[in-house]
Amino acid sequence: MSASEFDYLIVGQGIAGSCLAWELWRRGKSFLLADPCPFVTTSKVAAGLMTPVTGQRLVPSWRFLEFRNVALPFYREIEKVTGRGCCREFTMLRLFQSEREQNLFAKKREELKSYVSPSSSRLEIDSDKLNAPWGGFEMPLAGQLQTVPFLEATRDFFLKQERYRELSLDMEQDFDLSSADKVYVAKLDSTFGRIVCCQGVKGIETEGVNNLPWKPAKGEILTLHIPGLQEERVVNSGVWLVPLGEDRYRVGSTYEWQNLDQEVTEAGRDEIVRRLQSFLKLPFMVIDQQAAVRPGLEDQKPVAGSFPDEPRLAILNGLGSKGALMAPWLVQQLVDHLEFGTGMDPEVNFATRLNKSLKKTDC
């Protein structure tokens, strides 16, 4: 019996792999999506926030409007196909943490006008619930991909289409590249025109990929019960606070670069609680705690494209905490690159970034 043939194999069903599957499906390509389905993954734990202005320096998120203009219709189409909601648009309230931050915003307001509410709009902050001595500002273009519903809807949809396999694959051991134009995978008894690795942290130790300047970070998130807050906006002030409904909220996140496991810690919990209590006046109860490792690079930009010495293999990784925002744009560009040979954006192109990294190493 001859092996089945497909255009693509996607290895990993996090946010990146899921978005790639939808883009290939939309273009009518044959593919399989393989994932071992672990209980805890970065994408399952991720908040999925799309934040216009970030950091203590109040800088616009890299290419925010460009990415958002692709992401929202991309997710809306998936909602229509699956009949399941996963994407929310909302206003984010940023509370200043200091007078210095307040003054910085005043200086940068004109620069940030595309991302924040106009100065003429009234900022509502309930002083009985939130501590905001320096005020803040609102970002009406914020959004969120609800990652667990999105991943579940994706898995269920492609399971029904017999495009999904619950399977662990190793890039260095499971791919037979001896054929001139196809890749044979014995575990699937199938051949593929191209294989795209979207394995997150698991994929960063792969030969070649491990030459990039990776800087993965562990993050911890709490789920809380906060009776009486009744806040529909996401509140951000050192940590973000995301409403879930029925007085439940998620709050996070920490950044830990040394102990890169998926175990929750008392230190992580204490840090989040301390930051939250700096602006939340109401009592709350912790009802859950999660941890996962983000696959980020030093410059906090993703990597995508074909392997320089093996065009049948490609990568999409390093999306960090902004995967929900960036993934739809990245998969569209990646599929154009793989199908038509169009150049990848140099800021994310795997071959370009790998070459730069190797040159630095040689120096």
UniProtKB/TrEMBL annotation:
GO BP annotations listed: methylation
InterPro entries: FAD-dep_OxRdtase, FAD/NAD-bd_sf
Gene Ontology CC entries for this record: cytoplasm
Keywords: Methyltransferase, Oxidoreductase, Transferase
Matching Gene3D superfamilies: D-Amino Acid Oxidase, subunit A, domain 2, FAD/NAD(P)-binding domain
Pfam families with a match to the protein in the record: DAO
Glycoprotein listed as a keyword: no
Residues annotated as domain FAD dependent oxidoreductase: 7-330
Gene Ontology terms, MF aspect: methyltransferase activity; oxidoreductase activity
Name listed for the protein in its UniProt record: Bifunctional tRNA (Mnm(5)s(2)U34)-methyltransferase/FAD-dependent cmnm(5)s(2)U34 oxidoreductase
The organism of origin for this protein: Polystyrenella longa
